[in-house]
Amino acid sequence: MNFRSNAKSEPLAFQMTPMIDVVFLLLCFFVSSQIFAQWETEIDITLPTARTGEVPQRLPGEIIVNILASGEVIVNGRSLDSEQLGSMLSRVVTLFPGQPVLIRADKTTAYEHVIRVLDLCRQSDIWNISFATGVPEG
């Protein structure tokens, strides 16, 4: 009894299509997760600390307003004056009512600069505002 087949079997080839599909899906996943994980840490701001401070869940599309110690306002890497910030916030509220805004102010920033940004948010009818704090060390 001869159980061997007389036909020659071809060697298995490496399938590139499934490999490219998997790599593409991984690339899409990491790019999309990077967008939501970005925390604008490239701006040198020392946040004030709070004992009850915790790392909040980031909301999709959250606008982060950075206020430097000099009073300069930076949004998405662009320095904005009060008029530009007010018009940007008004456009955002028109398109997306209830848009969350996170204010990150340096701990040495004068209170008047934070109030100026809060006043612009109020004028634009933004009510979903939160403040970033750091966690105390030790």
Chart the SSEs and their pairings.
Layout: H1 16-37, E1 63-67, E2 73-75, E3 78-80, H2 82-95, E4 101-105, H3 111-123, E5 129-131
Parallel strand pairs: 1-4, 4-5
Antiparallel strand pairs: 1-2, 2-3
Helix pairs in contact: 2-3
Number of strands: 5
Shape descriptor reads elongated
Number of alpha- plus pi-helical segments: 3
CATH class placement: Alpha Beta
CATH architecture annotation name? 2-Layer Sandwich
How far apart the termini lie comes to 79 Å
Task: Tell me the Rg in angstroms.
Answer: 26 Å
Largest sheet: 5 strands, mixed
Order of helices and strands: HEEEHEHE
* Domain module count: 1
Indicate the structural class.
alpha/beta
Strand content: 5-15%
Taking all residues together, what is the mean pLDDT?
81
Strand order of the largest sheet: 3-2-1-4-5
Which fold name fills CATH's third level, the topology? Nucleotidyltransferase, domain 5
Secondary structure: helix percent = 25-40%
Low-confidence stretches: none
Description:
This protein has helices spanning 16-37, 82-95, 111-123, and strands at 63-67, 73-75, 78-80, 101-105, 129-131. Helix 2 packs parallel to helix 3. The mean pLDDT is 81. The radius of gyration is 26 Å and the shape is elongated. It has one domain (40-138): Nucleotidyltransferase, domain 5 (2-Layer Sandwich), CATH 3.30.420.270. The protein is α/β, with parallel strands linked by helices and 138 residues long. It has a five-stranded mixed β-sheet.
Structure in a nutshell:
This protein is α/β, with parallel strands linked by helices and 138 residues long.
